[in-house]
Structures are given as C-alpha cells and as structure tokens.
Amino acid sequence: MQVLHYKKELRDILLSKDGKNHTIGFVPTMGALHKGHLSLVNRAVNENDITVVSIFINPTQFDNKEDLEKYPANLEEDMVLLKTISNDILIFAPSAKEIYDEKIDSKKFDFNGLEKVMEGEFRAGHFNGVATIVELLLLTVNPTRAYFGEKDFQQLQIIKKLVELKGFPFKIIGCPIEREANGLARSSRNERLSLSTREKGGFIYKTLKTAKLKFGTESANSIEEWVVSEFARNAVFTLEYFQIADINTLTPILKKQKNVKYRAFIAVYAEGIRLIDNIAL
Predict the structure, then answer these.
(1) pTM for this one?
(2) DSSP 117
(3) Cα dist. 120→61, 110, 150, 201, 251 in Å?
(4) Nearest to 49 by CA among 23, 15, 86
(5) 5 is catalytic
C-alpha cells in the first residue's frame, strides 16, 4: 500500500502501470473512514484494475469553521481499515497547498438550481467547495469510475451534473447508504455523538421509513407536517429541514406526478452535530 502526497507522484505511478490499458476506480474521502467508505472501496477494487482512495479534508466545503477544526483525522487508522480490503490500494493524501497551490478558494458553479435547495440553502457556498475539489481530484486521478455514497444524494447529483457540464469521460457511480444496526446512516460525524445519542439515532431512519409508507396514501404537505411534529416531541434531535423532492431536479414536490421519482431528505442536529439522511420513495 502506497501513500502519496503529491499529484506528480500519483500521476507517474498511474502512468507506470500503463493506465491507458487498465481501469482506475476512485473513491474520494475526507478520511475518518468507516464501513460506508469501505463499501465504496470494496466495489472499486472489485470493478477495476487499480484503486485510488484520496484522503483530504477539504477546507472550502465547510461553512462552519468549528466543524472543520473538529473533523476527525487519523491517516494511520484509515490505512489499517483499507488494508482489510487490499494491500494494493493507492492512497492519495495531499496537503491543501498541494491541491490548491497558493490560493485555497472555491470556483463558482451553476448547476441549474441543484445547488440552491436543501443543503445549498442551509450551507452557503458548500457545493462550490465540493465541486471545486471533486473537479481537481478527478483531473488528477483521471479515473474510469468514481464512487460516491447516496447518503449525500444531493452531492451525488451535483457531481454527475459537473461531469456532464464539463464533458468529462469519468463514470460517476452512486452506492447505497450503509447503516448502523439501529438504522443511523454511517457518517464520520457519528463518532462525535455521545453513546446515548448514537443509540437513539435510529429515530431518524425510522421517521424516514414511516414517511415512505405515508407517501403512498398521503399528500407531501401532510407528511412534512407529521415529520415536524415528530421532531417537536423529540428531546434529542432538532429538525433543520425535511423535504420531498424530484430525484433528478431536486425541486420540492408540489403535487405528485406519475413517472417522477421522489426522495425524502432530512437534516437534523444532535449535540451540535449535523446529520443528514434520505430515502427513496
């Protein structure tokens, strides 16, 4: 297993492996790896000749400085986990200066409104930061396939749009949400929750599953009102938003339409930590 800190190092190794004749699977991460990440890496290893995992805590996608400072980082632990899958994974762990050169800043993007709702509404500039780093990493790795988890479904749709707008040849693959035993979506932020709150985290997924059941017979407005009332009675989790949206445009539902696929999205706070989740309806 090789840990590479410089773009040229990584490119030289990929070229030395005759990258034109080998498929490259890429999993971009911010470290603090868990079983959700490992499911992406495992798929990349199984579907490609070469697998690259980037570990980089991207400063431009944090709208909350405290959240950035508290984001967990332990490269040694991440390496141990990756070795359980394969010893041949290339780890790309650059510094911010290596990625951004002299100016750590985001580009501005227009994703036809995908970036303005839900996460975009509550996290100013977040998706500019995400798209900036993903574009830089994709151009560095030049993968055949790149893998992203559906927990960040809005991010996944935006990255697909980025690749479409730029005309990149990379295939973006969304992978199912990995959950803890109680249903809580796996996230690096879960490590910051108290044991008691983490054990109660299944409430979020339970609410989403009930919303899915209700979607068959009730209006979106009544479901949203029900979710709000459920969280109003919960002393542990504070609801930031619950939204039912078209999976392609991410526009909020006004009235159910045939042949349109919908998804329910949620963001909550617990102990000052922000958690997101979603479910197909």
Answers:
(1) 0.94
(2) S
(3) 11, 12, 17, 24, 12
(4) 23
(5) no
